[in-house]
Write a sequence for this structure.
């Protein structure tokens, strides 16, 4: 249908589009036509301007704080306000852009751990908000991955979070599932030294309950962070 | 200080903030959100009638406002008109999803919009810039005014209007069409 030849129809549809009574497929179709027809777009803009004072008359309702937080998260890291209190792990997550940087920080900021053998440490953060969400560590000579959740809200309701080692060469290797408790342990198949020595980074993806059915990440990777050797 | 001056100052400020957003100024965006989010949340909440949906739509719309700020042209639309159109459009698209209907379990949509109940229209008279629209809405027949208000404020479609007003679809469509025509003529005379 050619709107340009039917000014009356054009005017009526523009008015109903602005009012909101033009709905469903007709609305979507009209919007496409409008994009390619400056006169039609102008007619709609005029109607929106006529009716706009009605929107001003609606009682304002302050949205909850989480709306703004979510908008900032969606816009990406530039929106993150400067942290009020720079906790150790947060500082780590912000600064540890590379393993080297983290290593320096570990030796400078963290007092040397009492255990002689040292451990692997990874802080995983959300790249959108730069907030650290998981702290993962493993003693070199043990077969246990200690997982501490820094943000209990990350645990999905009907899915599992799976931890992956991202080796320098080769495909991601599953290390197990993020425990549902805030603090938990994951049993490794081999000593941490064998599992993590060639792994500069860890990642966490969303998987079906019980973990990836294929042995490789199938869902989106939500969190990543460098895995550093602390000894 | 008249209401008109106030409105003009606010529009100028929002236009400045949108221009700053176009230059990717996140602080200006935060101020834009502070000045406008309660109004736009009110608009979304009224149409969607569910807080979780309204929150989701508001989030999407502000991301959209941020993304499209460089395309905003002050000559074509007042800043609040531009932003509320984005929100209203997204709400109406949202209602288009399958099985979504405007909930009115408690009957409050119908209750709040008796033909002689001005509802939000009463607020129109407060703001000077909307006085013309308010005057023109007063010249409409009660049923026409009611149908237009329900469509605009509550996002009711023609068929939902027919159901709420208990009138045949064709009748309701005619009210809306004639009401809009009359509104346009009246507003043209006011200028």
């Amino acid at each position: 249908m050619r709107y340009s030849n039917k000014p009356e129809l054009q005017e009526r549809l523009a008015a109903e589009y602005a009012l909101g009574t033009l709905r469903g497929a007709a609305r979507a179709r009209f919007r496409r036509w409008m994009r390619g027809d400056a006169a039609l777009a102008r007619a709609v803009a005029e109607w929106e301007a006529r009716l706009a004072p009605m929107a001003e008359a609606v009682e304002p309702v302050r949205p909850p704080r989480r709306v703004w937080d979510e908008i900032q998260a969606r816009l990406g890291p530039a929106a993150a306000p400067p942290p009020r209190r720079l906790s150790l792990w947060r500082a780590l997550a912000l600064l540890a852009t590379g393993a080297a940087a983290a290593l320096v920080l570990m030796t400078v900021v963290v007092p040397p751990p009492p255990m002689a053998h040292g451990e692997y440490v990874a802080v995983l953060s959300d790249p959108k908000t730069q907030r650290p969400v998981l702290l993962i560590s493993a003693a070199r000579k043990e077969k246990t991955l200690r997982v501490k959740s820094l943000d209990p809200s990350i645990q999905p309701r009907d899915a599992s979070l799976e931890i992956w080692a991202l080796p320098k060469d080769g495909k991601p290797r599953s290390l197990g599932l993020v425990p549902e408790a805030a603090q938990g342990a994951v049993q490794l198949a081999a000593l941490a030294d064998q599992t993590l020595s060639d792994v500069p980074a860890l990642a966490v993806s969303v998987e079906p309950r019980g973990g990836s059915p294929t042995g490789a990440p199938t869902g989106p990777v939500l969190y990543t962070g460098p895995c550093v050797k602390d000894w | 200080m008249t209401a008109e001056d106030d409105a003009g100052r606010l529009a100028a400020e929002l236009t400045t903030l949108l221009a700053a957003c176009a230059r990717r100024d996140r602080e200006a965006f935060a101020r834009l959100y502070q000045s406008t989010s309660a109004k736009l949340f009110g608009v979304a909440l009224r149409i969607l009638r569910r807080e979780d949906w309204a929150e989701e739509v508001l989030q999407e719309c502000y991301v959209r406002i941020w993304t499209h700020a460089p395309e905003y042209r002050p000559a074509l639309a007042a800043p609040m008109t531009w932003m509320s159109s984005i929100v209203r459009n997204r709400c109406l698209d949202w209602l288009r999803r399958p099985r979504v209907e405007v909930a009115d379990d408690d009957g409050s949509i119908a209750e709040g919009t008796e033909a002689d109940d001005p509802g939000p229209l009463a607020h129109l008279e407060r703001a000077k810039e909307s006085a013309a629209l308010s005057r023109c809405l007063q010249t409409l027949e009660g049923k026409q005014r009611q149908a237009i208000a329900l469509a605009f404020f509550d996002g009711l479609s023609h068929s939902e209007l027919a159901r709420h007003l208990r009138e045949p679809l064709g009748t309701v469509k005619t009210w809306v069409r004639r009401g809009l025509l009359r509104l346009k003529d009246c507003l043209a005379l006011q200028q």
